[in-house]
Amino acid sequence: MKQQLQRERNKLLTSIDRLLEGPMIFLGFVWLILLVVDLVWGLSKTLDYISLTIWGIFIIDFVVKFILAPVKLLFIKKNWLTAISLIIPALRVFRIFRFLRVLRSLRGLRLVRIVSSLNRSMKSLTATMQRRAFGYVVLLSLVVTFTGAAGMYAIESPAPGFDSYGMALWWTAMRVTTAGSEYSPKTPEGRGLAFLITLFGFAIFGYVTATLATFFIGRDAEENDAPVAGAKDVAELRKEISRLTKTINEMKEKLDSN
Hints:
single chain, 258 residues, mainly alpha, Four Helix Bundle (Hemerythrin (Met), subunit A), Helix Hairpins, 11 helices, 81% helix, flat
């Protein structure tokens, strides 16, 4: 009985995920754009209301999925960053309390907010580009670069190299491409975010290098005098082996019949 109930919950949860996948992906990207605008320029009242509305929708979505999840602890483990990204905006809603205003001013909260929001955008990109690996990497790199630059600007400004969003964007782009920069963050939170951006840059650099190597090896393999066997060569070899196998089987049958 308990297992059947869990199966029914899983089916319902899967159905809700499929139904809300498109709208939640769209809202996830809007949420990220509003985060960048908030970190760099601040939100107007209208944009602030839109941000709070999206936040409320995310909370409802999270609570419904948590209720339907058969194993609550496993659900929290898989979505703990999402949960954090939903808790932090509450500091803005309840800013009438003095201690919450103090907490909101801490750079550490900005760092957590940036990382958790990037986590949501990564999930959205994964859902939209499941079979487009290289396109996914390119878009994800752009998302990390623009959002990371907004975070570095919000945390480090007005330090040299981060005194404008353009300079922070240049610095972040250099980190993502592993080129480096003469400027370095001064705050612990800025260093933490820089470390995460650098890790992402090294991971992407390895992927792009492997992709380019595979591309050029494939191009070389298409040449007639290529030292590397290509997919066409392997396919022709398989066909030849298949013909030889068929011929041998026919000869065996003839010998057996005689």
